[in-house]
């Protein structure tokens, strides 16, 4: 047989595209209060503060009026887009049609951008009715040279409890009336912090935790927190900044949710354009309902 025969061996090409690992859906949208249908560049979140009752010491006394404090936070919409081209002539040379995959990739990219907007708003500076408001130092737990520990989670829980954010009585009443929980608490972490927790005695011990974290290889809920894993959380030096919040304390405003389109562009040699966009914004509506947890990494 000729030694040149390998030159004629056929090559088989894939008829589909393998998708590299990436976050597909928005993981933080279900953890916040969503305000849809925003018209305009911004939308205000109107806030009313706590008041105290006064003593009535005599009959027919003059009524005292309580001055309820009012304030405002703003949701500023951000526009995000994604587009790629498929040359019409390239389609004739490809076994696999990339348009459907590109459309999917665009939606996935926007979903990750949606989570990034929510996360940035949770620890960033909120625009108020009179200026701006950073997350107060009292709502930040220092790194202390440790990862995510039970002590840090207990501190975060204490801060939320002390502010009466998501107390158990309100949850029980909502569930009893069939309305479900409105004060769900979440803790946004990376895989490293979940590893920290899996090495914690209280997480491993079934007497403390009924999630069976070790047998499942994951931490789902603990101390009333639902753990949400997002890998691209902000990091400075050795500090990775995880966040804990109550659903009602974070607002996500949507002017236009994810929109997609596949069109032929005559001015681009009739290439196919795969396009996605959205317009949304987020704001921290209540500082006391959000806690930043710095973790060593």
Account of the 3D structure:
The chain has one domain: phage-related protein like fold (Alpha-Beta Complex), CATH 3.90.1690. The chain starts with 32 loop residues before the first strand and ends with a strand. The protein has 297 residues and is an alpha+beta fold. Strands 7, 8, 9, 10, 11, 12 and 15 form a seven-stranded mixed beta sheet that branches. The protein is 23% helix and 31% strand. A hairpin with a 5-residue loop joins strand 13 (250-265) and strand 14 (271-284).
Throw out a few tags for this protein.
single chain, 297 residues, alpha+beta, phage-related protein like fold, four-stranded mixed β-sheet, 15 strands, 23% helix
Write a concise synopsis of the structure shown:
With 297 residues, the protein is α+β, with helices and mostly antiparallel strands. Helix content is 23%, strand content 31%. It has helices spanning 88-91, 99-123, 150-162, 168-176, 191-198, 201-204, 213-216, and strands spanning 33-36, 42-48, 70-76, 78-86, 126-128, 132-133, 140-141, 185-189, 221-222, 225-229, 235-236, 239-246, 250-265, 271-284, 290-296.
């Amino acid at each position: 047989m000729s030694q040149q025969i390998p030159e004629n061996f056929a090559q088989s090409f894939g008829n589909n595209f393998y998708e590299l690992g990436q976050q597909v859906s928005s993981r933080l949208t279900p953890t916040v209060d969503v305000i849809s249908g925003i018209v305009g560049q911004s939308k205000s979140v109107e806030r009313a503060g706590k008041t105290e009752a006064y003593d009535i010491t005599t009959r027919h006394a003059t009524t005292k009026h309580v001055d309820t404090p009012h304030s405002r936070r703003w949701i500023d919409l951000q526009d995000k887009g994604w587009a790629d081209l498929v040359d019409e002539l390239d389609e004739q040379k490809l076994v696999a049609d990339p348009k459907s995959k590109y459309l999917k990739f665009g939606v996935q990219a926007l979903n990750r951008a949606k989570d990034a907007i929510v996360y940035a708003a949770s620890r960033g500076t909120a625009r108020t009715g009179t200026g701006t408001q950073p997350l107060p130092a009292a709502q930040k737990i220092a790194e202390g040279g440790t990862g995510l520990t039970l002590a840090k989670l207990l501190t975060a829980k204490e801060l939320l409890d002390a502010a009466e954010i998501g107390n158990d009585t309100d949850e029980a009443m909502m569930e009893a009336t069939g309305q479900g929980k409105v004060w769900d608490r979440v803790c946004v972490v990376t895989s490293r912090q979940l590893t920290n927790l899996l090495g914690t005695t209280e997480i491993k011990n079934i007497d403390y935790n009924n999630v069976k974290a070790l047998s499942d290889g994951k931490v789902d809920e603990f101390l009333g927190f639902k753990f949400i894993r997002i890998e691209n959380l902000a990091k400075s030096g050795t500090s990775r900044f995880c966040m804990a919040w109550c659903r009602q304390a974070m607002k996500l405003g949507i002017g236009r949710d994810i929109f997609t389109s596949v069109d032929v562009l005559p001015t681009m040699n009739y290439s196919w354009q795969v396009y996605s966009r959205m317009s949304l914004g987020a704001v921290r509506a209540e500082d006391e309902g959000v806690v930043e947890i710095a973790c060593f990494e």
